[in-house]
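Quick one, tokens below. Sequence please?
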């Protein structure tokens, strides 16, 4: 367990580490702050920035001698700090290159890096709301539990800087725990109650993210089926704009191919006179994967007869078609009246009064799921 904790802490520091370049005062990434917790009995990598050539002195309360590190030509420096055994004592940690930064209330214990999708991200309150969340929050005064939440950001290459949503490490309390990962919090609470030492948890979660997004390029190169993708990324030097351009071209080509073979376009399925007796029915709103189209990406046409009362004839109306994933074309009595895109986006389409007639009308929606 100790080895795993050390490894996870190192990963966390690499993930959120960054250098805020300064030509004077020594600076460190946001993972270093007041109230921070360090893994016990570990060699902790320290890194930051200072004036090029400057000597940075690092003094921890538990060390008799200061550690020295020299900033390189880019102003970057690094050092290794050995931590003591976990305990209740709090320390100060000083970084000095002529001007000092001092972090207070630093503790040593077990540190865990908590990452995953929405089941790990779900907060104690917020959109999650665990059972009896109000009582859980009210009783969340745990000074021996330290929380750090990584701010969401995307990048095609490892980021040099990473931010905290909380302004650094915070003591666990009713004011800091509501938007924190519920799973990480309850895990830390149970662990602290069993080990009776300080526990730190780093919440680095993002619902819906694929495993590939958390995997290094070097590791993905070794996975069968990713060779060509990695080669393509290298060919454009991981340039975001170039990658998006290529993605746009490939996406447009794929959509064109799907449209070219779309039977609905060929046979004008949007027209009211089309015979739909052989069509199957689907209960909506719902995921079509749960309605017989499991693992299907592509085009599905939907039609429904809509009866309009005489009192609404000639009046502007609003169609609420719900959430459609990913793209849609909306036809009313055979005429295209709207198009939409984006997953998890509710569709609200205007229906002009000159197209609204009393009696039977045909609503047809072409859904393209990618």
């Amino acid at each position: 367990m100790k080895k795993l904790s050390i490894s996870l802490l190192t990963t966390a520091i690499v993930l959120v580490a960054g250098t805020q370049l300064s030509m004077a005062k020594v600076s460190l990434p946001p993972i270093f702050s007041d109230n921070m917790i360090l893994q016990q009995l570990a060699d902790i990598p320290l890194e930051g920035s200072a004036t090029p050539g400057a000597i940075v002195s690092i003094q921890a309360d538990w060390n008799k001698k200061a550690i020295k590190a020299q900033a390189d030509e880019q102003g970057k420096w690094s050092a290794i700090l050995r931590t003591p055994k976990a305990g209740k004592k709090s320390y100060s940690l000083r970084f000095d290159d002529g001007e000092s930064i001092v972090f207070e209330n630093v503790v040593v214990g077990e540190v865990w890096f908590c990452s995953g999708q929405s089941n790990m991200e779900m907060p104690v309150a917020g959109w999650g709301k665990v059972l009896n969340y109000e009582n859980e929050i009210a009783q969340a005064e745990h000074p021996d539990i330290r929380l750090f939440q990584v701010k969401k950001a995307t990048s095609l290459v490892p980021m040099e800087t990473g931010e905290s949503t909380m302004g650094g490490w915070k003591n666990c309390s009713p004011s800091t725990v509501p938007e924190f990962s519920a799973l990480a919090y309850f895990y830390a609470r149970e662990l602290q109650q069993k080990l009776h030492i300080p526990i730190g948890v780093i919440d680095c979660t993002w619902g819906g993210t694929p495993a590939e997004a958390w995997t290094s390029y070097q590791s993905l190169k070794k996975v069968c089926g990713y060779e060509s993708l990695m080669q393509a990324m290298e060919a454009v030097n991981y340039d975001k704009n170039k990658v998006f351009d290529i993605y746009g071209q490939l996406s447009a080509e794929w959509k064109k191919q799907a449209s070219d073979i779309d039977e609905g376009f060929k046979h004008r399925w949007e027209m009211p006179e089309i015979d739909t007796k052989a069509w199957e029915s689907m209960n909506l709103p719902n995921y079509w994967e749960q309605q017989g189209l499991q693992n299907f990406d592509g085009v599905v046409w939907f039609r429904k007869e809509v009866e309009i009362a005489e009192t609404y004839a000639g009046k502007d109306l609003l169609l609420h078609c719900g959430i459609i994933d990913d793209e849609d074309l909306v036809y009313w009595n055979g005429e295209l009246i709207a198009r939409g895109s984006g997953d998890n986006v509710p569709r609200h389409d205007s229906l002009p009064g000159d197209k609204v007639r009393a009696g039977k009308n045909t609503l047809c929606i072409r859904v393209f799921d990618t």
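The first helix runs from residue 2 to 16. The longest strand covers residues 100-116.
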